[in-house]
Amino acid sequence: MAGEGIASVREAGSARSCVALTLLLWLVVSLGAQAANPAYPLKISVNKRYFVDQNNVPFLYHGDTPWSLFKNLTKEEAEQYLENRRQKGFNAVIVNILDTEPYPNGGDVNFRDVRNRYGEGPFKPAGDFSSPNEKYFAHIDWVIEKAAEKGILVVLAPAYLGCCMDGWIERLQANGPTKCRDYGRYLGNRYKDFDNIMWMHGGDRLPGCATCEIREIALGIRDNDKRHFHTAHWAPEHSALDMYPNETWLDFNTTYTYKLVHAMLWRDYSRVPIAPFILVESHYENEHYGRTDPRDWPTTQWVRRQAYWAILCGAAGQSMGNNPIWFFGTGWQAAMDSPGSMSMVHLKALFTSRAWYSLVPDQDHTVVTAGHGDSRSLDYLTAARTEDGGTVIAYLPTRRTVTIDMSKISGEQAKAWWFDPRIGKATSVGEFATRGPKEFTPPADDDWVLVLDDASKERSIPGVPK
Amino acid sequence: MEKQGKVDTCQGSPGVEVIVFVLFGCLIIPSVLHSADRIYPLKIEANKRYLVDQNNAPFFIQGDAAWSLIVGLPDPEAEQYLKNRREKGFNTIMVNLIEHKFCKRPPMNAAGEGPFTTAGDFSTPNEKYFTHADWVIRKAAENSIQVLLYPIYLGYKGTDEGWVEEALASGPDKCLEYGRYLGKRYKDFDNIIWLMGGDRHPGAALEDVDLVALGIREYDKRHLFSAHCDPEHSAVDDFAGGRWLDFNTTYTYQIVHEKLLADYSRVPVMPFILIESSYEGEHNASEVQIRRQAYWAVLCGGVGHIMGNRPIWLFDPGWQAAMDLPGSVGMMHWGELFRSRSWYDLVPDPKHEVVTSGLGEFRGLDYLAAARTADGSTVIAYMPTSRTVAVEMSKISGSQARAWWFDPRTGKATKIGEFATSASREFTPPADGDWALVLDDASKGLPAPGAP
Question: What is the pLDDT of residues B180-207, one digit of tens each?
């Protein structure tokens, strides 16, 4: 299922490719290999709360952040990475086209080029945005196509700005708006026919003194590529739509926070006008900026907590991060099977076994009526209910007794489950009448997910495909 | 050290009060009075890490939020409040001198007097209003309680809770005049610390706030000043390099210990208190949240904390009963514990050199905060949840260490035993919930933690 199938998917829309797609899907299903790849490029759902593919199938953005995938890996290694992520259900990766390097581009004094594993840099001469190097971009093409084979969306960052003199913001300014527009047009022209991409501007920093240059890149892309969405990744505690407020080229939102994650998620959920948002970055597994002592790094439970909060606060998906994966430092292969990654496998299995796209956050505590924890703290319970009342899901960062208003669940009887987010195993609690309040207490310490279904719907076990 | 409610209302400077008393007989409570009994006003200790009283004794701030005390309560109820707080060891309350919203008929007090004879005009103070404020401050003094006095509370951004509009309308000249009025009026009260701003960035009112402070200071050079800014911002963020800011305040609803450690690490060094975090009865705050933020405050290098409770802070119905809820009781035991040890000598352990495992999440709610006195004679560690912790015993001075579990809920200390001060040793709390571990150099013969 290599080249030809991919080409067909990319042309989805014409009658011929629909046939090809159907054949491809049949082939995939009959081989029992995997579920069908999403039909990219993505679209936004009618209610603007999540993504759908070209066939209007809801797409749960389930991401990893291999920022240096293009630059730091060979083709063989990139394929190894993508295959591992595919097997774990990741369907989106954020990658820098112009990547970070420790202090490469902090002003012209120390400027040196970024080189990929084949010795190619993005521009000839180095740093000149009007002279893209065909070989550098041809390698990127190859990786994006490889991701397409595996059904993975590549979120492309055209020029990583850098948090701390490790990005391209000075080079953007040095090139100026005109060359940035040309660079954008080059990217738009080159990638307009790739289906499995989106654009993400910025990178760990507010646009600041490159406000104009970033806009020119985005508009330059759009001059030639009107098929793909744009978003952005600014400084922590800022969402994509916080910048460029009166412009229309940012299509969806991102939440980026190292603080009270659920509070920032609520903020983006409550925005008017509504825009879909993903939790694009919070704590990465095995690192926390400014803290070198491993004892101060976030726990695996933290990595889970922020991801569950994201979905239950109404996000269209979320992105995990891992050190050393994000820059492919020593040990990245083993890290791909870390507890954080495994927790993400279970998270996706749980939500895709239910109508996640129909979940409405329980912001006013009408479904879960007690046991929330501190609303401005980190043990906060988040819950959501499908619009039809068929399913309620609540995530408890710590063990406590919670009270559910059972009348909020449809049907006569509700089936209750505890889902263990560490191992992905669900345990039945029993069936209960959908009347009055009922208390539930997790079977053991730590974090748990409570799943309640309308018994008449005969849902699968949570975490098992429908 | 226990101050028995003596008050001196009109003496000039320290040392002259006896003469004043003899000559004019104007003391309300003419008990034995000499300078050794005077604790207020507070001063900054020479090393800038903590506050001291008039006898240079370190002063631990155990505070309560009583925002509407001056404006909201009739006299007998104000006395009832102050007595209850004093009995629980509270020595500090934060109070709005003028209140914009949270009382029955703002900005009028319970007797129907407003602060200004022309509404919102800072140049027209109403003598009757301020006479009542004087009375409340004196009553606090009788209870050995000092008042963090807010002359120009600004109010949360986007609300009408504060005086920001009036400050802007009155303008710099009237604000300076108002400050001078307050300075003259309150310079001879001992139990005051001035708190500028309140709950928001001064923004456009920066000059007005600044001039109120400078106006006060023209006449009143005796009292410390601090400020209370927008949530997640400390006083020095808005008033850095100010001509009047004496100590810093941490204000956060987020990752409390992280903000505290940041304020501890600031250069130049300034004493700081956790002036506000979650209030009991708001934001779904749990009992343990109220305790953990207070313990974090001290173990991360602060010199105290102001707790809050709704309905107490605005004296809504039910405030009397709320004074005996777990939040207030927990603060009482918290004060007892730290005052029973050399809290002012504690140095935070953010690199985990003393407590080496069982730390919880660095940015989590279960974060263990530990501190050790500079001489190694005492280590105190607070854990928000029960877990086994490892302590590097060699960090404790002497050859033997005496270990205690202190129960923050009840204030009861349980002796664990005595152990050699060598190698690493594990300790596990006797039950679930939050606990404080106290380790003392046994040769010092310190009393049980929390004992007077």
Answer: 999 999 999 999 999 999 999 999 999 9
Cβ distance of B365 and A378 shorter than 8 Å: yes
Alpha-carbon distance values, A46 to A39, A353, B129, B139, B369 (Å) = 17, 22, 60, 64, 49
Residues A252, A44: contact at Cβ < 8 Å? yes
Tokens describing residue B278: 């979650």
Do A28 and A85 share a domain, yes or no? no
Q: For helices B287-299 and B256-264, what crossing angle results, to 10°?
A: 20
A462 falls within a domain:
no
Predicted ipTM beyond 0.90: no
Q: Which residues on chain A are in Cβ contact (under 8 Å) with B286?
A: 373-374
Cβ of residue A296 closer than 8 Å to a chain B Cβ: yes
Amino acid at A419: F
Residue of chain A whose Cα is closest to the Cα of B364: A378
Residue B385: per-residue pLDDT: 92
Which residue of A286, A377, A378, A380 to mutate against B (max B Cβ within 10 Å)? Answer: A377
- Indicate the residue of B357, B359, B361 with minimum beta-carbon distance to A302: B361
Q: How many CA atoms lie within 13 A of B247 on its CB side?
A: 29
Range(s) of the domain holding residue A429: 357-457
Q: Is A456 on the interface with B (CB under 8 A)?
A: no
Inter-residue contact A168 to A199 (CB < 8 Å): no
* DSSP codes of every residue in A95-108: EESS---SSSSSSG
CA-CA distance, A423 to A400, in Å (whole number)?
A: 20
Residues B117-146 pLDDT 10s: 999 999 999 999 999 999 999 999 999 999
State mean pLDDT over B404-424. Answer: 98
Residue B47 CB coordination number (10 Å): 9
Radius of gyration of chain B from its Cα atoms, rounded to whole angstroms: 22
DSSP A327: G
For residues A133 and A29, membership in a common domain is answered with no
A23 and A105 both lie in a single domain: no
pTM, 2 dp: 0.82
Q: Do A376 and B254 touch (CB under 8 A)?
A: yes
Q: Which of A352, A371, A387 is the last residue before a domain boundary?
A: A352
Q: Would you tell me how many other CB atoms lie within 10 Å of the CB of residue A87?
A: 12
Go through the domains of chain B in sequence order and give each one's CATH number: 1-38 (no CATH), 40-339 (3.20.20.80), 345-444 (2.60.40)
Q: What is the average pLDDT across B167-192?
A: 97
User: Residue B349: which H helix or E strand, with range?
Assistant: none
- Chain A interface test: which of B251, B282, B362, B432 (most A C-beta within 10 Å): B362
Distance, in angstroms, between B357 CA and closest chain A CA? 8
What angle do the packed helices B206-219 and B164-186 form, to 10 degrees? 10
Taking chain A (466 residues) in runs of 10, the rounded mean pLDDT of each run is 33 42 44 71 98 98 98 97 97 95 48 83 92 98 98 98 84 95 98 98 95 98 98 96 95 95 96 97 86 85 96 98 94 97 97 98 96 86 98 96 98 98 97 98 95 97 92
